DNA sequence: CCTTGACCTTCCCGTGACTGGAACCCCCAT
DNA sequence: ATGGGGGTTCCAGTCACGGGAAGGTCAAGG
């Protein structure tokens, strides 16, 4: 299978697939004309990567997770550790964003949003005394 | 005031302050020795920028907001529009992250986390059916 | 007077995970 | 022969800085 078909099948852009090869996440074969030839195992890995990335895992986490996936003697504790650490990051980010949203929400509510210049949003940013 | 003092006062790293000058957000004066000399107005702008960035506004949004801040004839509607658009982005991101967290949370709960290899997390990533 | 150390300057590279584009090759159909 | 739709590589850019090198400046201490 060529890269275009793989892109369609996995939903990943061809550029991304080439990038994943660049950084060593997949190793497709090559045809005589230089085209990448993808086997089922490559497809499978790309789907794995797509799902892991959709859950927000970093590329390095993906590398770790794929290694664990392929290691039949893994301990599920190792997987869980990676996942929990990632979830911690996500929760931290959610907390940050919630704080921003709350502040913004108040400011937006307080702003008339008409053609006059008075604006509590700008007052706040300017360091309202 | 030199950049170090400004960094201490605003809480922004000196690197960041130089960067903000680079991209034209502030225009401090220069002493004869080439050192930046910051006026109160520069301090004020930097504090403004720091707060806007802390609320997650992009640099371009900050540029817009500062222009509105300095425009006495602004309409608060314009400010509100920028803020609402930004809040929309934040809410979208929160929604994404919440979805990730929920999925991860289920997977993590389902994972034994011991020294055996069976792992629902990897099963899911691998396309479990 | 000289040195030390804390500042300051510019400049360039790296970050993460791609995306866009240029320039070029390959294959099939008309 | 030509056109179009694949594929290939490589380079540059994204966003908002951070790290670090190489070198100029300044106040204090010996």
From TrEMBL, chains A, B:
GO CC entries: cytoplasm
Localization: Cytoplasm
Major localization listed first in the record, in broad terms: cytoplasm
Entry-linked CDD domains: HTH_CueR
Pfam families per the UniProt record, alphabetical: MerR (PF00376), MerR-DNA-bind (PF09278)
One BP term from GO: positive regulation of DNA-templated transcription
Domain of life: Bacteria
Keyword DNA-binding: yes
Gene3D superfamilies listed in its UniProt record: 1.10.1660.10
Keywords, ordered alphabetically: Cytoplasm, DNA-binding, Transcription, Transcription regulation
Name assigned to this protein: HTH-type transcriptional regulator HmrR
Lineage: Bacteria, Pseudomonadati, Pseudomonadota, Alphaproteobacteria, Rhodobacterales
Gene: hmrR
